[in-house]
Write a structure and sequence with these properties.
Length: about 55
């Protein structure tokens, strides 16, 4: 019963990024992250990574 819903998982994690500085989760589009249009609301940083790293 671990991960049987790949579609729901993809929807949950596809557009979620984590701030590299303060680990704040942000839901946005990957295009905006690449274009540096996303700003972290907590620390104001511009560096994010996708949530699915491990
Ligand atoms: Zn941050």
């Amino acid at each position: 019963m671990a991960t049987k819903i790949p579609i729901a998982q993809k929807r949950l994690f596809a557009n979620v990024f984590i701030c590299k500085d303060c680990s704040k989760k942000i839901r946005t589009q990957a295009v905006r992250v690449i274009a540096h249009k996303v700003k972290c609301p907590r620390c104001g940083g511009h560096s994010f990574r996708p949530i699915r790293k491990k």
